[in-house]
Structures are given as C-alpha cells and as structure tokens.
Amino acid sequence: MTDPLRKTDAIVVLTGGSGRLEQGFDLIEQQLAKKLFVSGVHQGVEVEELLKIFQRSPSGVTCCMTLGRAVDTVGNAAETEEWMTQQGYQSLRLVTAAYHMPRSLVEFNRVMPTIQIIPNPVFPVNFKQHDWWRWPGSAGLIVTEYNKYLVALLRSYIIPA
Questions:
Q1: Residue 10: which of 82, 59, 70 has the closest Cα?
Q2: For the CA atoms of the chain, what is the radius of gyration?
Q3: pLDDT tens-digit profile of 78-122?
Q4: Residue 49: partners with Cβ closer than 8 Å, 6 or more residues away
Q5: Which of 59, 61, 86, 154 pairs with 133 at a CA distance of 20 to 30 A?
C-alpha cells in the first residue's frame, strides 16, 4: 500500500483535482524521487507558470520537472510509461485523489506491469469521504468513478499491455 518514506525514481502527479500538485511539489522538495512528472497539464501551460500559481521557488524544481499533456487516465498511463522508459526508471510514486487511485492503479499496472508503483493518495477537502452517500456531489463522483473503474478493469483483462 502506501509508503510515505520510500524513495522512488519518479513522482507522477495526475492533474485534475485539488491538492495533487501541492503534494507532488512537497514530495520532490523532500527528495523522495529524482524527478517529478506532471501528467495532464493543459496545452500552453509551462513549468514556470505552475510554480508561480502554486507559489513555489523554481530553484531545485525546474531542473527536475517534466509536463505531460494527457487528457484522461488511459493517456496519463501511456505518456507516463513512455517517459519512464525514456528515463530508464523502475519505480514511481503515483499522486492522485484517493477516489481516483483504484482506477489509476489498474491503468498504470496494465501498461507498466514491471514498474513498482507506490500509491500516494490525496484527500481533497471538498470531497466528503465519510458519509459520502449523504453528499450529492461526492456520491455522484463515487458512482461515476466506480463505473470507470469497472471499465478499466474489464479493459485490463481484454486488452493486456
């Protein structure tokens, strides 16, 4: 499961929710990996702009940060696999929302079966993890994510990497 102190070759952040990039920056600043790969960044956004938005110092991060442009979780996994292969890396720490982690792990393990993946879930403030069924936004997100998870699981059996 999660291992907050284990070092990996890379930290991979999947964009799309609050707290993810902040967590990625914190982890790279703690030197838990050699490089930070941010997958799913909008076209036109560059490293310097992200650092400014998140009020991070460019020293020590710009040399170690790469951006990917995927638009979905399948794309996140594919572009991360390509980048990991180019870097020659064998391990990564995956940063995404806790509710998104199960599906992300299915997609990442499908295309990178030999890569060691350490899950690093983020718990967004607006997502009601406890009693989620009482909150329409959280309930809808859980149901949608579960359906996507089932599709990803089915795809992993039908279309192996």
A1: 82
A2: 16
A3: 999 999 999 999 999 999 999 999 999 999 999 999 999 999 999
A4: none
A5: 154
